[in-house]
Every structure is written in C-alpha cells, then in structure tokens.
Amino acid sequence: MDSQDNKRKWKNRDLIASLEFAMTGIFTAILEERNMRKHVVTAIAVILAGLLFQVSRIEWLFLLLSIFLVIAFELLNSAIENVVDLACNYHFSMLAKKAKDMAAGAVLLVSVFAAVTGALIFIPRIWELLFKH
Q1: What is the CATH number of the domain that holds 75?
Q2: Which of 14, 42, 63, 69 is positioned for an S-S bond with 110, CB 3.0–4.6 A?
Q3: Catalytic residues
Q4: 26 or 1: which carries more pLDDT confidence?
C-alpha cells in the first residue's frame, strides 16, 4: 500500500463520515473519561435548573456557551493526554507532564468561567426562593 492509499484510508470521505467520527469521539470520551461524565451530568443539571428558573435568552446563551466550552476543552484535554501517552509510550517525560498540565489548566480556566457564570445567574434566584417574604 503506497502513502497515497494510506492517506485516503484516514481522510474523511464526506460530511456524514466526518460527523460519525466526531460523534464517536464524543461518545468515547463520555464512556472512557471520568471527568467528561462529570461535565455531562453537570451540564444536564444546569439545563434543568435553567428550565426550572426560566432564565432569559441572554442567560441561556451564557449557560450554553459555558457548557459547550467546558465539554469542548475536556475533549481537547483528553485528546492531548492520549497523544502524549502514545508519543511517550507511557514513559515519564517532563515535557509530556507540562503538556498534560497545560491542557488540564485550560479546562480549569473554562470551568471557572462556567462556575462564575452559573453563580451569577442562579445564586440570586436561589436566594430569592429561599428567603422570599
């Protein structure tokens, strides 16, 4: 098999194939990555809270942005971890550690953004619900 045949084997042939590969990646992360499952459960809880508290359109935009950013960054983090492990053949490398730590740091930053966004939207509503006169 020449290199051109090998390239075709891995190249997405059409939109449907691209979508199938992407969905496979998302489902693989949900099944295999503990943190991804936590993010998905949290996302469902936030969506339910948004429905319960009837948040505004703008608030929905920020909540959905937060949810999708956290999940997208977790997917990237998981992909980076897998590639680093593959490249290092599971042997310790300071550069590998740095790459994995930086990817985890990116997830942490968007998670803090998401938490602050959720707090700004939901804390006043919860406060009002608990201490309504």
Answers
A1: 1.10.287.3610
A2: 69
A3: 74
A4: 26
